[in-house]
Amino acid sequence: MASFASVLAIAVCLFADVSALGFTFSAKLIHRYSLEAAEWRSREGVVVFPERKSLEYAEVLLSSDLKRLRMKFGSRLQFLFPSEGSLIQSFGNELGWLHYTWIDVGNPNVPFLVALDAGSDLFWVPCECIRCASFSASQYHVLDRDLSEYHPSKSSTVQNVSCSHNLCQARDNCKNPEDLCPYIVEYDTDDTSTSGYLVQEKLHLASLGEGTSRNGVQASVIMGCGRKQSGIFLSGAAPDGLIGLGPGNISIPTILANAGLIRNSFSICYDEDDSGRFLFGDQGPQSQQYTPLLTKDGKYEAYIVRVESCCVGTTCIKQSGYRANVDTGSSFTSLPKDVHDKVVAELDKRLDIKRTGQQGIFDNCYRASSKDLAKFPTIRLMFTNNQSFSVGDYTISSGTVICTNPFPNRYFLRALYV
Questions:
Q1: Structural contact between residues 333 and 340, judged by C-beta atoms closer than 8 angstroms
Q2: What tens digit of pLDDT does each residue of 135-167 get?
Q3: Which stretch of 169-173, 246-250, 296-300 has the lowest confidence by average pLDDT?
Q4: Are residues 127 and 110 in contact, defined by beta-carbon separation less than 8 angstroms?
Q5: Range scoring the smallest mean pLDDT among 200-209, 232-241, 298-307, 393-402
Q6: Which residues sit opposite 379 in a β-bridge?
Q7: CB atoms < 10 A from the CB of 46, how many?
Q8: pLDDT (average), residues 371-387
Q9: What confidence score (pLDDT) does residue 405 get?
Q10: By the 8 A CB rule, do 241 and 115 touch?
Q11: Is 117 known to be catalytic?
């Protein structure tokens, strides 16, 4: 979860230990939508559960979550989610390993499968395309419907954004203040960009009221009419647009907060199969851990946190403090070179496992059998206030390879299937 105030939330699990009382109690926990619970309730004549990982399944869980939060905090909180549902999905390499959600735009509403990116601010969709990715589902084996292209002339709620608008960042390139505001966003990935012009449009959202009743919300937002895409946007990543969730003034969470619709926060939660839910205005449970966000030149330009130390097992590397960017569009946990080298040296001390040499684009790799997995220590990042985050667990039964990134000055540890 990323909060635009000054904190970053890290999800944790809390366990209550009653063994100190002199008694030990145990009970089997069964998820209310598990197959075991479904079989039991079906015998009792109770309604059949929604299919696991389906949109209906996610909606039922979301409804339950929000009811509990409403009981705890009262009705003053408003959570918004896309009218298509709060479900987020990852389609693996087919769509660039990003997380996606369906979101409706305009009137009549048009659905777009947009990537979620906390590392940028602008929300854009393919529009009046000069150079865009394919919209045909046949080009993407994981999709069951075609993607969309936005046409401003077909929407009754679109408004032009002129160069004089306070959110037009390219006004210096305009010849006339009343011209359409152009935009171009260049991403960290080589030669990847989107460009076009800005429009004001309606974003179709929803909130859950009392019980399970759903209330529709049409929010006015600024978005990019993406006429030209380049780089990985043409080869699978974000073929139907991207919603920037950064802290900038033009990002959707900031716009919704400035309109008084939500608190200035959002959450993205997902499990091992990368499916989950997405909420605007969610600040998470009070029990979660927090670490402050850092500014650059006095501004929150990205979700930057300070890593105080990197720990390998019980050994924490001294003087390893550095600034790190939290970005939903990144797959790997990166380390500065000096920290990475110290982590590898510590692993060498603990592991009696030979390195394999280079594995594809990776180097400094260890190969481990299933028996060796238990030898791998937990790698944790330590933040302020002694908060910690585990980089990953090595639980791949067929073995694992731990490698470093060969790109200059960008290093990471990553568990890879072999």
A1: no
A2: 999 999 899 899 999 999 999 999 999 999 999
A3: 296-300
A4: no
A5: 393-402
A6: 312, 392
A7: 11
A8: 78
A9: 44
A10: yes
A11: yes
Task: Give pTM, 2 decimals.
Answer: 0.73
291 φ, ψ (degrees, to nearest 5)? -140, 140
CA distance 138 to 145: 9
Set 104, 117, 121, 240: catalytic member:
117
Distance in angstroms (rounded) separating the CA atoms of residues 108 and 157: 9
CA distances (Å), 69 to each of 15, 73, 75, 265, 285, in order? 20, 6, 9, 15, 8
Residue 171 phi, psi dihedral angles, 5° rounding:
-60, -25
Please indicate whether residue 363 is annotated as part of the active site.
Answer: no
CA-wise closest residue to 328 among 355, 303, 297: 303
Closest CA to 380 of 337, 320, 325, 328: 320
- Tens digit of each residue's pLDDT (9 = 90 or more) over 17-70: 222 333 323 333 444 445 545 554 454 444 455 665 555 555 565 555 555 444
Q: Please tell me which residue in 65, 121, 240, 327 is annotated as part of the active site.
A: 327
Residues with Cβ within 8 Å of 126's Cβ and at least 6 positions away in sequence, in order, are 132, 133, 135, 147, 148, 149, 150, 226, 229, 239, 240, 241
Q: Tens digits of per-residue pLDDT, 187-208?
A: 877 789 999 999 999 999 988 7
Closest CA to 362 of 404, 317, 414, 395: 404
Q: Map tokens 């403090």 to a residue.
A: 321
What does the pLDDT average to over 76-85? 76
Which residue bears the tokens 């959450």? Answer: 267
